[in-house]
Design goal:
single chain, about 700 residues, alpha/beta, 6-stranded antiparallel beta sheet, 20 strands, globular
């Protein structure tokens, strides 16, 4: 998951609509938000958490959780049903694009602070879009489970608790969550639950369809919804055309400028190429799906085919097929009482009994036919399996090549954007920034239009179904039963899964230890190393005798060292999650994921000797890093390291407006050699997000 944009509307001190566009480059992957204590850094962290998880996602140190809407707005005397707080987050995950919006009116906040409205729009990489209001939260938490949020969105000054022995269970849980083991753990817990066995023996109760009068009411309601959706979609399409026109105008202006003409022309060429690659990717994905659906079974039937071939060969070896004589022929002779030589066969005679004995070795003609059909089927499966394997390999290879080419095109487009955004010409920079904002808006509109179109299709299908039921005017009943399973099988499965989980966890601990120690040694210059013990306690260790003749001992960690160890642990988990599928453990085929690290005050408890190392190495481990820092935390080693490494892709300042903030040294902040006002006298207390040059 990569975060792209955060839009705040009346969230705490952020009055009105304000936004952050996050850095998403491979190298320039750091977004810096500068702000003094009390200006809104913690509010920004919690705005992201509230967007993803609602009230229950807010951090423990975030005071007055039940009042998120801007205080001044709430006290303005307006209609509580019209005053609203909202958070919109745009992000991508595995090339799919998502836009979530969580909102709450003042009336709902006063009645129940947990009552929020969530909308999640999704645009797949294949161009399909959808939105399912009933499953939005489930969809979000499948992308970023709530359990891992505390390891990705956190206050750095309060993360040191992970390096305490009493919190070893949190370390284990973090490994479960981030490295794909949580589902296995949950499955074990579910299998061991007392209610499971009872549920297996229950039968679904009968249910009947709604009455005709209720169906008529549904028909009327659906027709009203369809009409409203059509109007919204028409308005959305008009806005799409307007945004596309604005983007085209900006492109024309950039192409008219001699200094930017070549870059703009190259961008247009690359965007055309990117569109073609996306279409090819969709084609390969479709063909892969069709191939798997049509003949994927042959890859799993090879062992069965081999066994069938073995049985057929054995029957031939024993002379059972083809049969030397068939039973139907022998039975005809006996029934006719006449041998093939013309002699009469009389029951009870030796001749009759001799012919009758042939039935013991005779074969069934239908059996012969069945074996022949089996031979043919085995040959087909064996031949098709290899064809299927070759085709899947070719399609996968071609799709990977297209994906790689797409990534290269996107990188080139990002480079063009970076070049245009960093020019000395202010007019060009303004045009480029406006273009990017319009593209984000275009994506949002595309998702909205797709969601509306799908809603129309869904409601249309429901309406057809209701109309059919009304015409039928019959009550229908359906009955289903839950399948029964043996309780003993549950216990066996639970024990087996627990054994697998224990072994998997131990294998991953060893790999994680190597990762943690590697990064820890880069940050700290002492003869120490970090270690995750067998009981999952984060430790810093050393030897009293540098020669290694003595056993290592634990280092009594300071608060700063515990924070450092915890940060390195989380960053190492994030790094392993990115390459989870490549880790050779018992469980095969597990996918990890890319996750951002969003840190409020990450350098607060770290000494100067640690800050430089953290600033240098953490951005190289996580695909995206978002830092909320005060001037005291940033200036010095952190500033020097981030600027030297060229990691900062986006930079913002929290500018506070109020009647009095106390310290005069908070009025201005020096960033990259420039002084910026960060406090202004004003009767209306609020904070504004100001984008700075990165």
């Amino acid at each position: 998951m990569i975060l792209e944009r955060l839009i705040l509307t009346n969230f705490r001190q952020f009055l009105g609509r304000q936004e952050i566009i996050f850095a998403t480059g491979k190298k320039k992957n750091v977004t810096l938000v500068h702000g003094e204590n009390g200006f809104g850094k913690t509010a920004l962290l919690n705005a992201l958490l509230w967007g993803f998880y609602g009230y229950d996602g807010l951090t423990d140190d975030f005071e007055h959780k039940a009042t998120l809407i801007n205080e001044g707005l709430a006290a303005s005397g307006g209609d509580p049903n019209d005053l609203e707080v909202s958070v919109t987050i745009q992000f991508t995950d595995d090339r799919d694009q998502y836009t979530l919006t969580r909102s709450q009116t003042l009336a709902k906040q006063q009645a129940n602070p947990k009552d929020t409205k969530l909308n999640l729009d999704v645009k797949r990489a294949d161009g399909q879009s959808f939105s399912d209001l009933k499953r939005d939260q489930l969809q979000l938490e499948s992308l970023m489970p709530r359990g891992i949020s505390r390891y990705l969105f956190f206050n750095g000054e309060r993360i040191d608790h992970l390096a305490m022995a009493k919190n070893a269970s949190e370390i284990t849980d973090a490994i479960y969550q981030m490295l794909g083991l949580k589902l296995l753990e949950t499955t074990i817990e579910d299998l061991g639950h007392q209610n499971v066995r009872g549920r297996l023996n229950k039968e679904l109760k009968d249910y009947t369809d709604e009455s005709t009068s209720e169906l008529l009411g549904q028909e009327e309601e659906l027709e009203e919804k369809i009409q409203a959706l059509k109007m919204r979609r028409e308005a959305c399409c008009e806005e799409q055309e307007a945004v596309a026109s604005e983007i085209k105008k900006i492109g024309a202006k950039l192409e008219a400028d001699k200094a930017t003409r070549a870059l703009q022309q190259e961008r247009e060429r690359l965007e055309t190429e990117e569109s073609g690659l996306e279409q090819r990717s969709v084609t390969f994905t479709t063909r892969l799906g069709e191939t798997i659906a049509d003949s994927g079974f042959t890859l799993f039937a090879q062992e069965l085919a081999a066994r069938g071939r073995e049985i057929s060969t054995q029957l031939r070896r024993e002379g059972k097929i083809p049969a030397r004589v068939v039973n139907s022929f022998v039975e005809e002779l006996l029934n006719a009482h006449r041998c093939i030589c013309g002699c009469e066969l009389v029951e009870g005679t030796d001749a009759y009994e001799k012919v009758k004995e042939l039935l013991e070795i005779a074969g069934d003609q239908q059996f012969n036919h069945a074996v022949s059909a089996l031979d043919h089927a085995i040959g087909v499966i064996e031949g098709q399996a290899q064809k299927t394997r070759n085709l899947l390999e070719d399609l996968t290879k071609e799709r990977l090549e297209v994906t790689k080419a797409s990534e290269e095109v996107r990188e080139q487009l990002a480079e063009i954007h970076a070049k245009l955004s960093s020019r000395d010409d202010e007019a060009v920079v303004d045009l480029e920034n406006k273009r990017q904002e319009l593209q984000l808006k275009q994506r949002e509109l595309d998702q909205n239009e797709g969601a509306l179109r799908r809603d129309l299709e869904d409601y249309g299908g429901e309406l057809e179904s209701v109309v059919r039921q009304i015409k039928a005017s019959k009550q229908q009943a359906k009955e289903a039963k839950l399948a029964k399973r043996r309780v003993s099988a549950l216990h066996d499965a639970k024990d087996l899964l627990q054994t697998i989980l224990d072994q998997e966890l131990e294998d991953l601990r060893a790999i994680l230890n190597e990762e943690i120690d590697s990064h820890f040694r880069k940050i700290i210059d002492r003869a120490y190393w970090a270690e995750l013990s067998k009981d999952y306690v984060l430790k810093i260790r050393k030897r009293l005798d540098p020669s290694g003749s003595t056993s290592p001992i634990d280092v009594a960690q300071s608060t700063g060292q515990r924070q450092l160890t915890s940060l390195v642990f989380i960053a190492s988990l994030v790094a392993l999650a990115r390459r989870r599928a490549e880790i050779p453990t018992i469980l095969r085929g597990l996918d990890g994921g890319e996750y951002p690290m969003v840190m409020d005050s990450p350098f607060g408890q770290l000494g100067d000797e640690f800050r430089s190392g953290v600033a240098k190495w953490i951005p190289s481990l996580a695909p995206q890093v978002i830092l909320f820092v005060s001037s005291s935390q940033y200036h010095g080693a952190v500033d020097e390291q981030l600027e030297t490494a060229g990691r900062v892709g986006r930079r913002y300042l929290l500018r506070y407006f109020g009647s009095n903030h106390g310290k005069s040294d908070h009025r201005r902040i020096r960033i990259q050699g420039k002084l910026h006002p960060q406090y202004q006298q004003d009767d209306s207390e609020r904070t504004e997000l100001v984008e700075l040059d990165s």
